[in-house]
């Protein structure tokens, strides 16, 4: 068995959820936060058979858009206090960030 971990933007998570349900996949949704943007995103944990991995990734990819976002980058030293001006930097977010892990053991008790 494999565990597909997919970080999806908040704006896309409903579409991804519906598509995965339509295809009959079982999954868990975890609310998460991006380390850089500090904005909410959604992490899907999807347990699948090895031959289903590519299809799951295709489904997620088909419903996850790439977007550009501005992030405020603060200079490393803030001195003197009060003169710190953040410079906005454009980053490309998404579609989805996907990890595939081997599952050593799976039990439903
Ligand atoms: P965030 O950490 O909020 O990152 C948003 C976007 O900012 C990233 O989009 C990427 O384009 C950029 N970014 C993030 N960290 C960066 C860094 N150290 N240097 C340069 N650019 C950086 P995505 O790559 O599409 O990632 C979207 C979200 O997926 C991330 O949100 C994070 O929650 C997750 N993610 C991405 N890579 C990951 C990783 N290696 N491990 C765990 N989570 C990851």
Can you put this structure into words, describing what you see?
The structure is a single chain. The chain has 109 residues and is an alpha+beta fold. It is 18% helix and 41% strand. The protein is built from 2 helices and 6 strands. The strands form 2 sheets. The chain has a 4-stranded antiparallel β-sheet with strand order 2-3-1-6, covered by helices on one side. The model has no long low-confidence stretch (mean pLDDT 92). It binds ligand 2BA. Ligand 2BA is lined by residues 7, 34-37, 41, 91-94, 97.
Individual helix count: 2
Order of helices and strands: EHEEHEEE
How many distinct beta strands? 6
Helix percent reads 10-25%
Low-confidence stretches: none
Percent strand equals 35-45%
Give the strand order, joined by hyphens, for the main sheet.
Answer: 2-3-1-6
Largest sheet entry: 4 strands, antiparallel
* Overall pLDDT confidence: 92
- How far apart lie the N and C ends? 17 Å
Rounded radius of gyration (Å) = 18 Å
């Amino acid at each position: 068995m494999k565990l597909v971990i997919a970080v999806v933007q908040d704006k896309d998570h409903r579409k991804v959820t519906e598509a995965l349900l339509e295809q009959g996949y079982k999954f868990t949704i975890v609310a998460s936060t991006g380390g850089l943007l500090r904005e909410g995103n959604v992490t899907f944990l999807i347990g699948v058979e090895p031959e289903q991995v590519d299809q799951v990734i295709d489904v997620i990819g088909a419903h996850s858009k790439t977007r550009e976002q501005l992030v405020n980058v603060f200079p490393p030293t803030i001195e003197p206090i009060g003169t710190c001006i953040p410079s906005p930097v454009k980053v490309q977010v998404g579609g989805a960030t996907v990890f595939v892990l081997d599952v050593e053991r799976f039990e439903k008790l």
